[in-house]
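INFO batch 0412 | record 1 of 1 | parsing
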Amino acid sequence: MKRTILLVLSLMMLLGVLVGCGSQKIIVATDATWPPMEMVNEQTKEFEGFDIDLMNAIAAEAGFEIEYRNVAWDGIFAGLAAGEYDAVISSVTITEERQKEFDFSNPYINAGQIVVVMADNTDIQSSADLSGKTVAAQIGTTGAMAIQEIEGATLKEYDEIGFCFEDLLAGRVDAVVCDTPVAADYAGVQYAGQIKLVGGAFTDEYYGIMVKKGNADLLAKINDGLKKVQDKGIDDQLMKDWNLSGK
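INFO prediction complete | emitting tokens
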């Protein structure tokens, strides 16, 4: 009987070791409404975009698996703080205010804010011309924050960036302000010929992968994977694949 118990315990310990040797799975949240960075493919219903490909490459280099969750932007920070997922990759700009509540990976792209207007607009040449104008941005983004800093500009906020561009096309706003890679995709692909970028990026903003404050182990793994991705030039290739040259 004693030998049987010892055998069972040994098998349980061996199973624990084998399980421990398997790759770690982390849950990653993203607001998949921000092309070309993160979105849902309408045909396959799978997540795709630059951020998704980058995170998958990081996971492959660092040796962990990913389960993605689509989370609306206005609740994505609270969900991470509550432990509903392990990390967030969703075109999140690293700011001093956010760093007080969360930890960020090393930066992986500079995506400053830029102004988008109708193709035939000649009044707005840059952010300096937004005073007296109604300007759209996604709620809670650094684009919205940038507009609030422009004296005389009226901010109009939307739950999704796509709604901003829909209202621009409908003439309900004068301009849109958002991250340059996203603006380049809308102006160069989705609404090519109808809208245009003006003035160049007027801020320097770096994206980072966000984890819960104090989660040093996961952060180290992400940074390790990110460094390997960058050293191999995988991120540069992904930028070409997703046509982010307009940044």
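INFO post-check: Residues 2-109+206-241 form a domain with the D-Maltodextrin-Binding Protein; domain 2 fold (CATH 3.40.190.10).
INFO record closed
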